[in-house]
Write a structure and sequence with these properties.
By secondary structure, the chain is α+β, with helices and mostly antiparallel strands. It contains six helices and nine strands. The longest helix has 15 residues, at 17-31.
């Protein structure tokens, strides 16, 4: 593929973009100081207003990319109103970027439970105590709620997952790999899912 398309060997000869993403992620895990799995996720609300924020990738399968959140948060409400989103990974240490577009759906309860139970005790308590994205009068108000839920769920091994907290699976129809080149002559390789098969195109920078 690279000889034909004239791309840097770092793009490799992968027909499946998930395989290339995994390779780039492994390299990022070695070079990024903090959170190589951090990404910006963009949503659009019912009024057509776009918004974005940083989240962490917590799952990757052949079906797509998974992150978790409070379903009543701003992004949760956006995704309910318009179940489409885009993601962007940017690894400054590698001078690489991956952009992803697709539709979203909730993960199943078992998957959500398994990830929730893998989190630290304080993080699970925080999921109960935080009405994410809502106005907070004082920080003390939140910290008081944290202590109240610690009393309610004192056993670190028995903190149920809130019904309003789960994961979103983004199933992509487009994944673009970008690499920095001097003088802004960047290289871009785009995969599009057409008829359940991935097709490659190189794009002008």
């Amino acid at each position: 593929m690279n000889e034909k398309l004239g791309l840097d060997p770092a793009f490799l000869n992968e027909e499946n973009p998930y395989n290339l993403f995994k390779i780039w992620m492994k390299e990022a895990e070695k070079s990024e100081i903090n959170d190589p799995n951090a990404l910006s996720v963009a949503t659009v609300d019912s009024a057509g207003q776009p918004d974005n924020r940083m989240v962490l990738l917590k799952g990757l399968t052949e079906k797509g990319f998974v992150f978790y959140t409070n379903l009543e948060s701003k992004k949760g409400k956006d995704l309910k109103a318009n179940p489409k989103a885009s993601m962007c990974f940017h690894w400054k240490s590698l001078q690489r970027q991956v952009r992803i577009q697709g539709s979203v759906a909730l993960v199943d309860n078992q998957t959500a439970d398994e990830y929730y139970n893998s989190r630290a005790y304080e993080s699970r308590i925080g999921a109960w105590a935080s009405t994410q994205s809502e106005v907070m009068q004082t920080r003390d108000e939140f910290e008081k709620k944290v202590e109240e839920f610690k009393k309610k769920y004192p056993d670190p091994n028995n903190v149920p997952r809130p019904s309003y907290w789960s994961g979103w699976l983004l199933s992509p129809y487009k994944i673009e790999f970008w690499m920095d080149v001097k003088n802004r002559l960047h290289q871009r390789l785009c995969y599009s899912n057409i008829g359940n098969a991935w097709h490659q195109e190189i794009l002008y920078p």
